[in-house]
Amino acid sequence: MSKKRKSPGSHESLKVGNKIISLEGYLSKKRKTEPDSTPTPNNQVEAASKANTPAKEVVESSDPSRKLLRKNRREVTGAKPRASAGDPAYLETRKELPLWGYQDRIRGILRKRDVLVLVGETGSGKSTQVPQFLYQEDWCRPRRVKAKGEEVSVGGIIAITQPRRVAATTLAHRVSREVGTPISATNGSGDSGGASQESYVKGLVGYSVRFDHNIPRGTKIKFLTEGMLLQELLRDPNLRQYSAVIVDEIHERSVDVDLLSGFLKQIHCGDKAGRGGIPLKLVIMSATANVEGIQEFFSASDEAMSLTTNIESSQVECLRIEGRQYPVEVTHTPKAVPDLQEALLKTVFKIHLQEPLPGDILAFLTGQEEIESTQKLIEEYAATLPSNAPKVKVLPLFGQLSIEAQHEAFRPLKAKFTRKIVLATNIAETSVTVPGVKFVIDCGKAKVKEFRARLGMESLLAKAISKSSATQRAGRAGREAAGKCFRLYTEDTFNGLADRDLPEILRNDVLGAVLTMKARGIDDVLSFPLMDSPSVESIEKALVHLHLLKAIDDNGTITETGRKMARFPISAPLGRVLLAAASPQYDCVLEVIDIISCITAGDDIFHQLQSEEAREEVDEFRKELYRREGDLLTYLTTIQHYAAEDSDRVDWCKKRKINIRNMRQAMNIRKQLRGLCLREKLLAEPPPPDPQPFMPVSPKRAETLVKCFLMGYTLKTAMLAPDSSYVTTHGKHVVAIHPSSVLHGQKREAIMFLEHVFTQKNYAKKVSIIQAQWIADALEED
Ligand SMILES: Nc1ncnc2c1ncn2[C@@H]1O[C@H](COP(=O)(O)OP(=O)(O)OP(=O)(O)O)[C@@H](O)[C@H]1O
Fold it and tell me: Where is the Helicase C-terminal domain (predicted)?
C-alpha cells in the first residue's frame, strides 16, 4: 500500500496494491446520536431524551454543568448519593456516572429482595460501581452458621462474572484502583487450576480467570469468568464463600452463562439448607438484555415458593437506569460496501488524518486472520505518511492472544504524537473500556461458530451481527469523553438486523454443557432449568457421545474419568485423550500436551501460503517439520523444534512462516497444562526445563500417539470409499481433507480428524492417517 496525497488532513485516497481507494464522500454526512431505533432499553432512553425527559443527559452529558445533572438525577431517583470508601482520586469521576445516583436505591432493593435485574446503558457504570455499592452491606458479612449439621462460614464476597477473561481482569484492575487497593501485577497466584488460592497480599478486589488467579487476602469483590464460577460450583455447589453473585452482560448468552443461570436459579429457589438458610443475592445486569425473559426465568415457581420462608425477598425486581455518561455519534455508510477491509482502511485513515489527537481507534473485525492482514496494511500505509502526520501504533486484540498480549491494547501509549489503533474481534464488544478510545469502527460482522447436530459438523462463518451487538460496539466509544462510531453498513442494514443473537446453547455442540451438568450432579439433564433449552435430540446425542468417551456409565451416571475431564479447561474429547495419555498403555502425556497446546493456541500455527512460489520457498524450511503421519505429528515436531531453539525464535518462525504469536501462546498453554497435569497426578514429576535437544519421534511412538487421540475421536474418522472420496464412519458424510493439512490430496485407507468444518465445502481439518482396525480397537478398549 502506498500513499497518494501529501499532507495530513488533505488525504482523499489511498492505494492498496493496485487499487486506489477514494476517501472522498465515503461516509454519510448524516449523523445521529446513539442509541438507535432498536427496541431496547437504550432507545427508550433515547426516546426519552428526545422527549426532553431526564434521559436528556445522554446528549447533555458533555455539558460542563454536571452538578445540575447530578441534582436532576437525585430528584429522579430520590437517592442521596453518598461516597463509599475508595480512592479520592477516582471519586469525582465515579460521581459523574449515571449509576452513582442510584446507589441507595440499589442497596434498598437488595435489602428487601434476593434478585435484581439491572438494565443500564453501556458505560453507565454497572460493572465497576454495583459491586462497590454492595460490599459493605450488612448482608454481605460472612456468617458462621449450621449447614446440614456442620458449622460453616457463609458469605463475605461478591462474585461478578464476565463473559471473557480480558473483561474480568481489566475490570478487576480498574475497580481495585477505585476502591484504593490496587492489584499488584506480582500478586497473581498463577494457575491454581481454579482453586481460590488467597495470596499473602491484602486487598479488596481480586480476579480469577482460566490460568490466572489474583485473590488478595481480604478480597470482598471478585471478578471471574462464567466458566471459572462454574468450576467453583463443581467444588462448592452452594457457593458458600459468596453473599452475592452479579451476572454481568447476560445478553451474551454463552453456554456458560446459561448453565450458570440454571445453577443460580436452583440455589435461589432451593431450600438453602446448604447455606445454613442464608440466601445468595443475585444481580443480573446488561445494557441490551431481554429483561422480561430474565425476570420470568428467575422468578420462583409456585412449587419452589413453598420451600422458602420469605416470599417477598424471593421476588425479582427490575431497575432500569437512564442515561450514559458521554454521547456517541453514530454514522452509517450511505451505501453497502463491497469490500469490508478496504472500507475499514479508508475509515481508519480518514479518522487518523482528520480527527485531532488524543483519540484512539477501536475497530471490530471478524477474526485473527483479518486482524493480522489489516494490521499489516495499516502499518505499511502509515509508514508512507508524511513526517508531520501523527504516527500510528496498531495493536491486535483477539481471544487466542495471551493475557499479556491482550493487556497491551489497554495500556496508554508512551510514544508521543501517536494514535493507538486496536483491531479487535467481538471479545472487546462488551464490558471493556479500552482507555483512550474515542472512535469505534464496526464492520457489522462476527465469526460465529454453529454446530449442525444432525451432521455432527461445525461451521465457522462471518455473519451479520445483531442490533444488540451493534449497540454494544458503539458503547465502547464515549467512555472517557464524547465519542463517534462509524458503522460500515447502511442504516437500512442496521434496521434489518435481528434484535439479539441466538443463544449459544441453541447453536453450539452441547457436549461440554451436558458434561458440566453431570459433573455437578444433575442426573436428569433434560429437566435442568435453562432460559432456552436445546433440542432433546442434541442433548441425547451429547449423552451418547459422553458414554462413548467413558465420561458416563450405562446408567448415565458420571464416572471418575468424566469428573476428571470436567476439571480440565479443554474440550471433552481432548480431556479424554489427555487422561488416556496418562495410562501405562500410552504413557505420552507430555507429547499430548504439546499437541493440544498447538491446536488450541489460535487459528493455525502455520500461516497459509497463497502462491505456489511462496509454498516452494517455505517448504524448504518446513520440510524438517512435516510428518507423513499427518498434522498432529507435524504440530508436535514443530513445537518441539521451537522449544529446542535457543538462539532466535522470532527468526526461526519467520523463515518457516509460523505465527509467532500463536507459538508463544502454545508455549503458555503448554506450561499451564503441565502444571494442571502435575496437580491432577497425570504427571509424576515436573518435566525438564526448556530448551531440551530436539529428538524426533519414532514411527512406533507416532503410532501410539495417534492411537491415543483416537480415544477421544473415534467419531471423527473417515474411510476411503471406492470412488476415492472419504466417507465418515459416523453419519456417512463425504469429507475432503482441508488444503491446510499436510495430508491434503493424499488417499489412505482411513483418516482421523479433530475438526469437521463447513466453509465452501465439507472439510476435515487436523488430520492423521490411521488404520481401519485401530477404530475398532479404540471402541473396544476399556
Ligand atoms: N479500565 C478502565 N480504564 C479507564 N476507565 C474505565 C475503565 N473501566 C471503566 N472505566 C470508566 O468507567 C465507566 C463505567 O464503566 P463500566 O464498565 O462500569 O460501565 P458499564 O455500565 O458496565 O458498561 P458496559 O455495559 O459497556 O459494560 C466507563 O465508561 C469509563 O469511563
Answer: 339-521
Q: What's the gap in Å between 530 CA and the centre of ligand 1?
A: 30
Distance 432 CA to ligand 1 centre (A): 7
Alpha-carbon distance 121 to 113, whole Å? 23
Cα separation, 346 vs 350, whole angstroms: 6
- The count of residues in the chain is 782
CB neighbourhood size of 83 (10 A): 11
Residue where one domain finishes, among candidates 706, 736, 770: 706
CA nearest to 120, candidates 179, 193, 35: 35
> Phi and psi for 774 in degrees, rounded to 5?
-65, -30
Q: How far is the C-alpha of 158 from the C-alpha of 280, rounded, in Å?
A: 10
Residue 409's pLDDT is 94
pTM of the model: 0.79
CATH of the domain at 455: 3.40.50.300
* CA 521 to ligand 1 center in whole angstroms: 37
Domain coverage including residue 774: 713-781
The 8 Å CB, 24+ separation contacts for 771-775 are 772/719, 774/706, 774/707, 774/710, 774/750, 775/710, 775/714, 775/717, 775/729, 775/750
**Nearest CA residue ID for atom 12, ligand 1:** 125
- Is 537 inside any structural domain? yes
Element (H, E) at 201: strand 198-202
Question: What are the tens digits of pLDDT across the range 684-727?
Answer: 999 998 888 899 999 999 999 999 999 999 999 999 999 999 99
Distance CA 124, CA 208 (A): 24
For residue 478, which atom of ligand 1 is closest to its CA? 29
Give per-residue pLDDT as tens, 511-550. 999 998 999 888 888 889 999 999 888 888 899 999 999 9
pLDDT at 55: 27
C-alpha cell at 564: 476428571
The answer to whether residue 13 sits within a structural domain is no
Predicted ipTM? 0.98
Task: Please name the residue whose Cα sits nearest to atom 8 of ligand 1.
Answer: 433
Q: Are residues 550 and 635 in the same domain?
A: yes
The verdict on the CB of residue 127 being under 6 Å from ligand 1 is: yes
Give yes or no: residues 515 and 460 share one domain.
no
What digits encode the pLDDT tens for the residues 48-94?
A: 233 222 222 222 233 323 333 343 344 333 344 443 558 888 999 99
